[in-house]
Amino acid sequence: MSEISKQDGSKLLTRAVRWLCSPLVKLLVAKGIPYPQFRDMIKEIYIEQATQELQEKNEKASFSRIFVKTGVHRKEIKRIIEQVEDKVEEVEVKATLGGLLVSRWIGLPEFQDRQGRPKCLARISTKGQMGFSDLIKSVSKDVHPRAILDEWLDLGIVTLEDSDRVCLNESAFIPRTDFEEKAFFFGRNISDHIAACVDNLHGERDPQLERSVYFSSLSEATVSKLHKFARNKSIQLLEEINAEALKLKEQEKDQSFQKYRMRFGCYWFDEQTQPDEGDKK
Predict the structure, then answer these.
(1) Cα separation of 265 and 211, whole Å?
(2) pTM of the model
(3) Is residue 258 part of a domain?
């Protein structure tokens, strides 16, 4: 490291990781996931990342090399590597499909009203009018529209009008009751957010976009107003980026060099802070 010593850099990074892990461990404790289970998972991730780093450098990912990089015993490395299965879980397919459907509903002109908002769609498509079944088929022909509709009605993502039209309740896809899908997006969104920060810490290319605004000593009323303002602006921005991405993706659909993925997100957090010693006096 150039500006600071490697030892000082490790101390600073360890402090930052502690901040990062605190809310995560709070969640694990609340959900009854004990330390031994978390420890074993972290062990697997250490082995996975060390193996990936060696392979990227065209070096042999032997048990000995992985041990040197991770400190995990070679017998444990062998056991973990042999039991790991590379498979796509059902929840990933389910969540990805839902995200694609809502992305197209709020981003493609054929599913929007004159104001550019997602319009209510006829449950059963009619000649000359795009319906809910057309939306489903535009993403997958292997899923029956009724199955998606029933699940989204249960989750409160859509409502069904008396005229048999399906209306989207949220401009952004936020499952309210399905913990499985919320956990999926929790992992994926935060993983990419952290990856952007890690990329910036490495400093090997132009910085990734990772910014926030912070204020303290605010009233509850002010925080409420700012929250509403931020929510409206962020939804507008997400919808604009979604529409632009769909347009650009359509332009590239016949080309063969698509090797990149992206994720852009917004977040908000507020809490009541504890008074400091000066306030107590």
Answers:
(1) 11
(2) 0.64
(3) no
